[in-house]
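User: Fold both of these, please.

Assistant: Here is the first one.
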Amino acid sequence: MVEEPLPTRGELDFRLIELFFFAYREFTADADSILERYGFGRAHHRILHFVNRAPGMTVADLLELLQITKQSLSRVLRQLIDEEFVVQVQGSDDRRQRRLYPTEKGRTLTLELSRAQVRRIDAAFREAAVDDPGRVNDFLLEMSNDRKATRDWFTRQGIGRET
C-alpha cells in the first residue's frame, strides 16, 4: 500500500494536469447547465457546435472529426433531429451521403452555449492579464494537433499560429 502522494514536481508536473482537469470541468459546466434543460449532454453540444460551424458537413466527416463510433453518434444525432435542432439532407452528388444542417432552433441553442463559454474565456483572460491570446491559441493548437481530421479542420477554419 502506498501512502505518499505523488510529488507535485519532478519527472511529471501534476499541477498542469490538474489545471487542465479543473479548467475543463468549469469550461464545460457552463454549457452543461444549459444542456441539462433540454435533457442533452456534451455529445449533443459537440454535434451542434460543429454542424453550426460547418453547415452541410457529412455524417462521415463528423464521425472522423469527433473520433466517435457510428453507434455513439446515431442516438445523439437522432435526438437532435427528432427535436428539430438539426436536419439531415441526402447528398445531391451521392444519395448515400447524409449532410447535416442546423435549424434556427439549433443555431439559437449553439449561440447560447457558446456565449456562456466565451464569457468564461474572456473573464479568465482579464483576470490572468493575458494581453496576447495568440500565445494561448498557439499552445492549445499544439496540444490538439495530433490527428489529421483535426489539422484539416483547423486549416479549413483558418486556425493556426498567430504571426
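And the second sequence with its predicted structure:
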Amino acid sequence: MNQIEIRNLNKVFKTKQHALHALNDVSLTIEKGEMVAIMGTSGSGKTTLLHILGCIDHPSDGSYRLNEMAIEQQSPKALAHIRNRDLGFVMQDFALIDHYSVQKNVLLPLKYMKETKLRKERAARLPALLEKLHIGQKQHEKVMNLSGGQKQRVAIARALINEPDIILADEPTGALDQKTSYEIIQLMRSINQEGKTVIIVTHDPSIAAHCQRIVRIEDGKIIEDGANVV
C-alpha cells in the first residue's frame, strides 16, 4: 500500500528578478513501513520536498496523496490536523523550547488535540516513552541543561507522543558527533522496525546507509531511487 504518492510535483519560488525551480516534475511513492533516505547537496531541493511531504509547504502544481487523501484539496485547518495526527517531525536544531522541561516539550503536540480522553491516554505514556529513549531520568530537567544527543532524544519523543504513522527527520544528526549520530540513527531504525514509516533528509552517506532505500535529488529532480542493503 502506498502511504505517500506524489506525481509531477513542482515547486517554484518567485521573486521580482527570477523564478527558482526548487522541485522539477518530481514523482515518488513511499509504502507504509519503509525507511527512506532523501539525499542531496545543499540547495538540491531535498528539504523543500520534505516540507511538502510534511504539509508545511504547498507545491506549485502536481498532486500529493497521503493515505489516499488528496493533500492539495485540504484546508489550512485540515492540514494542521493532519500534521498533528499523522506526522512526527525531528529537526537538526531540535526545535525545542529551552526553558521548558523535557516533559513540557514532549507534551506540546497534545495541546492541539480535541479528544480529552485520548490526550490523557497519550500523556500517560510519557514516562515509558522517555525510558525507551534512555532519558527517563531527565523528565523534569530543563532542555537547556541537556547535551545535543539528549535534546534530539527529546525531539524524537515529541515526534512520537501522538503516535503518528510517519516520522519526517530533517538532518537529524547534523548537529551531533559521530557516536551520538550512530545512537540516534539506531533509534530511528528501531522506530521503523515497530512499523512506522521513517523518511530522513540527509547529506551524510553514513546515515543514509542505515536506510532501506535511498532517493537522490539534485537540482530539484530525482536522479536515483533504489533499494539499499542494510
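The mean pLDDT is 93.
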